[in-house]
Design brief:
The protein is mostly beta strands.
């Protein structure tokens, strides 16, 4: 079982930046793929960004490409999502997730699909005002 705890959300203005953090339990979590999804009110949960266990592969949704950066610090079992140039349409609850599988290297569909991820955090709210 993997536990994930997100932090860093808040209320900001359009154009501002935030950094979300996700701390994962267990030393093995440094070998797992990690991702961020988000869910806006009245909408389905959508993929935002993903990173392979060693950081060698990173994937982004088209809507955030060039503005958001996913990274990880395996020594701290932590993954980050840097949110830059925020827009009101980025308002959502942001969820951290992991596949819980050691050393997986797969194609992009694996990292961007929610079905690859059985472990989810509780989410952190990001609100961007115009």
């Amino acid at each position: 079982q993997v536990q994930l705890v997100e932090s860093g959300g808040g209320l900001v203005q359009a154009g501002d930046s935030l950094r979300l953090s996700c701390a994962a339990s267990g030393r093995a979590s440094s070998t797992y793929a990690m991702a961020w999804f988000r869910q806006a009110p009245g909408k389905e949960r959508e993929f935002v960004a993903a990173i392979s266990w060693n950081g060698g592969r990173r994937y982004y949704a088209d809507s955030v490409k060039g503005r958001f950066i996913i990274s990880r610090e395996n020594a701290k079992n932590t993954v980050y999502l840097q949110l830059n140039s925020l827009k009101p349409e980025d308002t959502a609850v942001y969820y951290c997730t992991t596949d819980g599988r050691t050393g997986v290297v797969r194609g992009s569909d694996y990292y961007t699909g929610s079905t690859s991820y059985p472990y989810w955090g509780q989410g952190t709210q990001v609100t961007v005002s115009s």
